[in-house]
Design goal:
The chain has helices at residues 3-21, 29-36, 40-47, 50-70, 78-95, 97-113, 119-142, 151-171, 177-180, 184-199. The protein is mainly α. The protein has one domain (57-199): Tetracycline Repressor, domain 2 (Orthogonal Bundle), CATH 1.10.357. It is globular. The termini are far apart.
């Protein structure tokens, strides 16, 4: 790794840290420069501005969780592998809840600020889908998973629901009294169990 790449990664790590603690809209390049000890001009040269740095942070976080979703144990059966895939959402919630807080703000930032090119980010998301499709096909072939007519829509609906729930529980505090009594881990587990019940072949 070159010195420039090492410095870029250092800035990204510091930025991810501050974005995990503070609202994305309230963080400036100056804040990140002061935290990292890297000059503002250098950060602008590396990333082209705040939008470029925020996207670099999103890509880093994608890489950080990639192994949780994509590195599957070859000894797992079709159902077990799909179960592990969905339970990765809960594992990340319990171990890296800051990821969901960042994603919640990142989505809002993308909508409000606009991005010229999110192709790499979108390509990485497709990789998760392709991995799921492979696991699903293996599970159907082994008879462990039910055949779903439109499995891509099932994938999108189930992962969107899980991701939205994880982001909500990570980013929002209690609003009404019922929210105070929510066990966040159990709530995510319940949704995962509903999804797995609908994908598992009947015995």
């Amino acid at each position: 790794m070159s010195l420039i790449e090492a410095k870029k990664n250092f800035v990204i790590d510091k930025a991810v840290g501050i974005f995990s603690e503070k609202s994305m809209s309230g963080v400036t390049i100056r804040d990140i420069a002061q935290l990292s000890g890297i000059g503002e001009a250098t950060i602008y040269r590396y990333f082209g501005g705040r939008k470029g740095l925020i996207l670099a942070c999103a890509l880093k976080l994608q890489r950080d969780v990639r192994e949780v979703f994509l590195d599957n144990d070859n000894k797992l059966t079709g159902y077990e592998a799909v179960s592990r895939f969905y339970n990765a959402y809960l594992k990340i919630f319990n171990e890296h809840i800051e990821l969901y807080r960042f994603l919640s703000e990142f989505d809002a930032f993308c909508l409000s600020e606009g991005f010229d090119n999110l192709s790499e980010y979108a390509d990485n998301i497709d990789e998760f889908k392709f991995n799921f499709m492979r696991l699903y096909r293996d599970g159907v072939a082994s008879g462990e998973l039910r055949k779903i007519d439109d499995v891509e829509t099932f994938y999108l609906a189930s992962t969107h629901a899980l991701l939205s729930l994880c982001k909500k529980l990570a980013a929002e505090g209690p609003v009404i009294r019922q929210d105070v009594h929510v066990n966040k881990t159990l709530e995510i587990s319940a949704l995962i169990n509903i999804i797995l019940y609908n994908v598992k072949a009947p015995e």
